[in-house]
Amino acid sequence: MKKDRLFLVKLGGSLITDKTKPYTPRIDVIRRLLGEIKEAISMERRLILGHGGGSFPHVSASKYHTYRGFVNEKSLYGMTVVHRDASRLNSIIIEELLEIDVPALPIQPSSITIAEDSRIIEMYIEPIKLLLGHNILPVVYGDVALDLEKGCCILSTEEIFRFLSIKLKEEYDPYIVMCEVVDGIYSKDPIKYPDAEFIPRVTRDNYLEVKEYLSSSHGIDVTGGMLHKVEVLFELAKEGISSIILNGLIQNNLKSFLEGKHVKGTIIQY
Prior knowledge:
Blueprint: E1 4-11, H1 13-16, H2 27-42, E2 46-51, H3 58-64, H4 75-99, E3 104-106, H5 109-112, E4 113-116, E5 119-123, H6 126-133, E6 137-141, E7 143-147, E8 151-155, H7 157-168, E9 172-180, E10 185-186, E11 198-199, E12 201-202, H8 207-215, H9 217-223, H10 226-238, E13 243-247, H11 253-258, E14 265-268
Parallel strand pairs: 1-2, 1-9, 2-6, 3-6, 4-7, 9-13, 12-14
Antiparallel strand pairs: 4-5, 7-8, 10-11, 13-14
Helix pairs in contact: 3-4, 7-10, 8-10
């Protein structure tokens, strides 16, 4: 029996916030993208929405070195501050979804997850399954988590999607959609280097070469966490779960892809 397609859509932190200004959402971008998601839902597309933290938890996560775990006397307090900052952006997303009559419910990863060295080993996902069955949009986000090795860690939305897509694979056909501020993956920063080559597809044939691009000095400025994204998405590709990285700044780009139309982006398949 053919499984229903399940889109796991991430709105990148750099896309929905101004990373140069702490706690600054790009409300116009958020509203447009959520409008596109509403249209996709009206076409009976089944979705889980996720988003990065952007300029909200970035300051506190850097201040308290939360990614390193419990490293000093301020770490426990710092973990809770980072969670608060991440959840503030999530509240904005939920509020905007409700304003356009999309039934959506936040899923707080830190309350349902145990990690080990920043990798999820346990997550209680039964509520997410029930929400999908009721056509209520689950909204997850990058958050902190208790970590058996480090005490605490930062959970990326990519890591959350990795775990969810594998666990939900028995019931659905998952597809990851990453909305970023670039068209996909380039050999180097296309803004600084006009000769940068667009990479339309990442497979086992060019994966190591792409990793080398993203690890180089040419790639660090523009990609930031792009290397992490590609590593997680390629791991999922090995499990038969494909993904695309596309530009969320282009109006109707996300909507068009969810409608089944061709858009420019980097597809990651094994």
